[in-house]
Design brief:
Blueprint: H1 5-20, E1 25-28, H2 36-46, E2 53-57, E3 60-61, H3 62-67, E4 77-82
């Protein structure tokens, strides 16, 4: 299965997260990935239970934005923030 631009971007970003552990990483969305569940599935595929994280859009929790009726736009840039202190 071919990986999307989003998946490839996240793969590179995840390597940065695991190296630095306390660094937030911004990930641009490609036009083909605008579904919240799919984004979470991609992120979960790279982030293990040992590295808890939240996904932000413009500094706000993406999950909460979706619950409030917001939509993900193709020009959104998401930030994956590992919830680990120290480094």
């Amino acid at each position: 299965m071919l990986q999307t631009d989003f998946e490839l971007s996240f793969a590179g970003a995840f390597r940065m997260i695991t190296k630095k552990r306390s660094t937030a990483v911004s990930i641009p969305l490609s036009g083909d990935v605008r579904d919240y569940e799919r984004i979470c599935n991609v992120v979960s595929g790279y982030v293990t239970d040992s590295i808890p994280y939240i996904i932000l859009r413009d500094g706000q929790n993406l999950e909460e934005l979706i619950k409030s009726g917001e939509r993900i736009r193709s020009n959104d840039s998401l930030t994956v923030v590992p919830l680990i202190l120290g480094g």
